[in-house]
Amino acid sequence: MLHISTDPDHIWEVDYRTPTALHLNGQPFAWDVAALGPGRFQVLYGGRSYEAEVVSADYIAKQFVLKINGQRLELSAKDRFDLLLKRLGLSAAAAVQVNELKAPMPGLIVDVRVQPGQAVLKGDPLLVLEAMKMENILKAPADGTVSAIKVNLRDNVQKGQLLVQFS
């Protein structure tokens, strides 16, 4: 089962699990499709013919752009796992922006590798924290811009202490 939408007000439930038929919003959907070339199709539905082209397909984000008779159409798909996460209130969790980095353990700041205003990518080194005679490189948890560094070189920090803020 998929939920296909063009915007929040236009959502269709598509059941493709039956090997012989497709159901749209609980009703059988009778159509014929013929491939015309890579990403191009001829669709017959309701006594009419439509030319469909797949302009782009992002299977990870489940975002698609089609052209139907030359008209651009952007679609989003949600499968049963996406719908379950939404029902559990977890769907927005991935979209939450990380806006701070806290110390994972007590230690000593031995290197500061960024400065306020600097753009960073996920995984870029920010600080070096020495703890138990080992140097730990603390990396950016997400893409962003450093708005403030809340520690100085040679500062002792406690676990959970705010180190870097992002905007």
Automatic annotation (TrEMBL):
Keywords: Biotin. InterPro entries: Biotin_BS, Biotin_Carboxyl_Carrier/Decarb, Biotin_lipoyl, Single_hybrid_motif. Pfam families: Biotin_lipoyl. The keyword Ion transport does not apply. It comes from Hymenobacter caeli. This is Acetyl/propionyl-CoA carboxylase alpha subunit. PROSITE patterns: BIOTIN, BIOTINYL_LIPOYL. Residues 85-167 form the Lipoyl-binding domain. It comes from the Bacteria.
